[in-house]
Amino acid sequence: MKASQFLISTLKEAPADAEVLSHQLMTRAGMIKKLGAGIYTYMPMGLRVIRKVEAIVREEMNRAGAIECVMPVIQPGELWRESGRFQTMGPELLRVKDRHQRDFVVQPTSEEAVTDIARQDLRSYKQLPKNLYQIQTKFRDERRPRFGLMRGREFIMKDAYSFDRDEAGAKQSYQKMAAAYRAIFDRFGLRYRAVAADSGAIGGDLSEEFQVIAATGEDAIVYSTGSDYAANMEKAESAAPQGPRRAPAQPLTKTPTPGKSTCADVAELLGIPLASTVKSLVLATEALNGAGEVAKVQVWLLLVRGDHDMNEIKVGKVPGLDAGFRFATVPEIMEHFGTKPGYLGPIGLKKPVKIVADREVAVMVDWVCGANEEDFHITGVNWGRDLPEPDAVADIRNVVAGDAAPDGQGQLAIERGIEIGHIFYLGTKYSRAMEATFLDEDGKPKPFEMGCYGIGITRLPAAAIEQNHDERGIIWPDAIAPFTVVICPVGMDRSEAVKTAAEGLYAELRQAGVDVILDDRGERPGAMFADWELIGVPHRVTIGDKGLKDGQVEYQHRRDTAATKVPASEIAALVKGRLAA
Amino acid sequence: MKASQFLISTLKEAPADAEVLSHQLMTRAGMIKKLGAGIYTYMPMGLRVIRKVEAIVREEMNRAGAIECVMPVIQPGELWRESGRFQTMGPELLRVKDRHQRDFVVQPTSEEAVTDIARQDLRSYKQLPKNLYQIQTKFRDERRPRFGLMRGREFIMKDAYSFDRDEAGAKQSYQKMAAAYRAIFDRFGLRYRAVAADSGAIGGDLSEEFQVIAATGEDAIVYSTGSDYAANMEKAESAAPQGPRRAPAQPLTKTPTPGKSTCADVAELLGIPLASTVKSLVLATEALNGAGEVAKVQVWLLLVRGDHDMNEIKVGKVPGLDAGFRFATVPEIMEHFGTKPGYLGPIGLKKPVKIVADREVAVMVDWVCGANEEDFHITGVNWGRDLPEPDAVADIRNVVAGDAAPDGQGQLAIERGIEIGHIFYLGTKYSRAMEATFLDEDGKPKPFEMGCYGIGITRLPAAAIEQNHDERGIIWPDAIAPFTVVICPVGMDRSEAVKTAAEGLYAELRQAGVDVILDDRGERPGAMFADWELIGVPHRVTIGDKGLKDGQVEYQHRRDTAATKVPASEIAALVKGRLAA
């Protein structure tokens, strides 16, 4: 490609609404252009990146035996009523009425459409397993679209759906996709982690997120320094504390703590470690009567160490809390504890509550908690001696850096990530709802065991930028750069020698299949270099009259701080060598 | 590809709603699957065809210097208000409200979005010309979607938009696209014609349709047997009649024609050629006053030969009729002619009307028309002698087969076509409405001169099928076949020799870059052949145990009536030779 034949449109300033770096840089580099809130045109420079992402994904999906199709953007509401999602999904599902006032949706994913294909076309167990995927435009009507391609409303997603005879088959299909995803993300040239994720109502361990590591990532991801263990924060398990509880050493003492309503304040006031305090969180569950009215409210007290945070996903798995819970209201708290939040604790309750202690809290001795009296805490609290053992002990906290890894290998560390892929075992959730069955070997109809597997095609370039940039702009990995090599001739219009050398190198690299762009726009060197550093092409060759007189040109990788002089006769081989590496 | 790894889903019967052959065959061959009215999933087999169409289009568009981008499917209504299309387009424009009740449209084309890019990014004449294109999903909410991909609601279109400094540049860009379109359609391997089309309000000759020839096509297209002249029926010009009018030979005679209100009936009754009769059509134009009310109605009588049809597009270019016209009402006709339609003519009017004669009518002598009296016609009518010369003489009829070509070279012939491409010079229609300007060399802002260029990507396979099929199914041209070659092993599960030969040929053809599928499903020969004939793979190799014993396999092109025996050692070379041809 020659730059004069392409559309290069860089900006000095990022738009005011671009809050994150990838949004700023993609806009400034002319890769995307906003058409409306959360709706972007993929400009020629950006589309080249997206197409390279698509090509890698497509190649590996095909290699893994998945079969490509394309399902409609606009889908009948009728179909979405069958799965129940038309009714249950919130306003992020964009609903449309056609000229005949019939309901349609703009697809955010395609479980319904693909299950409709399966129930028509996959009639026998002999046709299974099958995995159908598409790379297609999606829409999610975010309340507050922002961050450019990171959280847009219209986006491109690769979504795959596997159909199997039974759970064992579905798990094999899932593992095949897990391997394919690793192959895909390895090829992108990005640092990433596959982390276990919570699989919600389906249960089991079969859900993983693929996270691109970036300091600006919105997800906290947890990994072990001593093993392959990795999970997202929702899912990451804290290791069970070692050994039995020590014997109590302190007497139970009520202590004035005026105005100190947080564990941190209390620890500071008393001169004790934060880890000696216990945080009280009050939840409520409701039992309904036959008419769907609340018949009984059960109040729960959850205890986590003062330096820990409660993990709602884990709480939702505690027996009794696993059918849904809410935070207790202030009147409910007053009724049971006799005081307001900030001074709560498990001793001296007005009315009984169910007590759930985090595993770490269950082994504490001589701890500190609220006295259920404003401006007072209790120190030297001990299980068994001062209060009964808790009703339940469970892992209900977020892990923290330095925790022992749950597999016993090394310690947990935490970093930030951007989710760009998610694989998920679905079970028969959709196939049962939509009556999608096949005839099994025994001649009986059975619902398909399904899995679904997504990759955010247009989100990936944004994540790549969050991970790879500097103050001058983007730094693309070779695999997904809009162009791999840029040739910058200085004074091409004045010097025949420069023109000949530039055109010659351009032709030679193209011949070798290198995705090279020749900047023949006639820009001045400063502006030309600034453009390509902003755009982030990884390899640059600069050809000038002065260097050529000595038979030399310059090579600079986008991460290099300075250019290297290279004999003109060796530059093509050098560039090709760099790309092969 | 091995068939067992792919999704092959053929049907014996076409769905009841499939009216046209391509819809029936694409559904039966498992290429498309209906999700809703006019909304189809592109199934794996169909998607392969679509991707090949896209690849050819993309390659030639790039070669012609057009630059690919992707504009959003969902576009802000605000932008569409700027061009006026939000207000003026009918219900075929699918309008959506987002969660904040803001207006959006689902794009049917992208003039607004691309003009918005141009006005931001093309700032100087130095950046021109530029041609931006996309291959993207479109939606048109047809009242009665039907014919499968031929007239669907959701479809994929390649739409390109050129931006130039001036009209001369725009016309060059147009010609470049015209050449690219010929290159594209040549590669598809289909019989097609590029025909001149009417360019509506923009004027000039710069509009061409690309029509795939098919007996079932909905458009009539006109071409010369003696030259390159070709146009659609709306546009095709009739040659001016030769020589002066002959002298009158018959007296003017009123003749009873009871109940004969059509030219055909009158010609039959009188025993004269239909070409001696003249058809009367009554139109009206309205002049409005300052308040937008109808101030004056002008009635027009249009005369075409009895064997000809009026062409409304041509009528709309007659001075006085070019600002819009309607058919006259029965009261208007009674008022001016004194009788009802069926017996109208230009002689003996109650009130004056403007008379427009087709060029053929203007040279007629001794002709027959209505007497403006029920059940009577007049014979022996002659211009000048019996009535004044017409107010205007113009080409206002559809051409018919056998007409002289307007360029004087040969005769016109008519065939049916399916429009799959359209190129159009737009002028400054959108750039003026949206204030899209660039700075010209003189430092002044000027509106872009634009052109637009479409190809119906998903319509093309349907058109290809309408042109190429037989009673057994589809016959794909090599360039866009889902697979180019199918290997059908007979008894692969029973015979090692068959398995080895089939796998060997499969590997060899794949190695040579041939898009080959090996049918390893274990279907019986009859079902297997029927599937591939329905799907329409152009080249088939059958490998059976019996033939192999004599060292032979069978080759059959989809158009061949029988298979040819070929030595097994030569089959790969033969197939490769057929593909290269």
UniProtKB/TrEMBL annotation, chains A, B:
GO biological process terms held by the UniProt record: prolyl-tRNA aminoacylation
Catalytic activity: tRNA(Pro) + L-proline + ATP = L-prolyl-tRNA(Pro) + AMP + diphosphate
One Pfam family in the UniProt entry: HGTP_anticodon
Gene3D superfamilies the record matches: Anticodon-binding domain (3.40.50.800), Bira Bifunctional Protein, Domain 2 (3.30.930.10), YbaK/aminoacyl-tRNA synthetase-associated domain (3.90.960.10)
Keywords: Aminoacyl-tRNA synthetase, ATP-binding, Cytoplasm, Ligase, Nucleotide-binding, Protein biosynthesis
EC number of this enzyme: 6.1.1.15
Compositional bias ranges of the Low complexity kind: 239-251
ATP-binding among keywords: yes
GO MF terms held by the record: aminoacyl-tRNA deacylase activity; ATP binding; proline-tRNA ligase activity
Annotated region (Disordered), positions in chain: 235-258
Keyword hit for Amino-acid biosynthesis: no
Enzyme class: ligase
Ranges for domain Aminoacyl-transfer RNA synthetases class-II family profile: 38-477
CDD domains: ProRS-INS, ProRS_anticodon_short, ProRS_core_prok
GO cellular component, one term: cytosol
UniProt superkingdom: Bacteria
InterPro entries: aa-tRNA-synt_IIb, aa-tRNA-synth_II, aa-tRNA-synth_II/BPL/LPL, Anticodon-bd, Anticodon-bd_dom_sf, Pro-tRNA-ligase_IIa, Pro-tRNA-synth_IIa_bac-type, Pro-tRNA-Synthase_IIa_type1
Domain remark in the UniProt entry: Consists of three domains: the N-terminal catalytic domain, the editing domain and the C-terminal anticodon-binding domain.
Function comment: Catalyzes the attachment of proline to tRNA(Pro) in a two-step reaction: proline is first activated by ATP to form Pro-AMP and then transferred to the acceptor end of tRNA(Pro). As ProRS can inadvertently accommodate and process non-cognate amino acids such as alanine and cysteine, to avoid such errors it has two additional distinct editing activities against alanine. One activity is designated as 'pretransfer' editing and involves the tRNA(Pro)-independent hydrolysis of activated Ala-AMP.
Assembly, per entry: Homodimer.
PANTHER family given in the database record: MITOCHONDRIAL RIBOSOME PROTEIN L39/PROLYL-TRNA LIGASE FAMILY MEMBER (PTHR42753), PROLINE--TRNA LIGASE (PTHR42753:SF2)
Family: Belongs to the class-II aminoacyl-tRNA synthetase family. ProS type 1 subfamily.
The protein's name: Proline--tRNA ligase
Organism the protein comes from: Ottowia testudinis
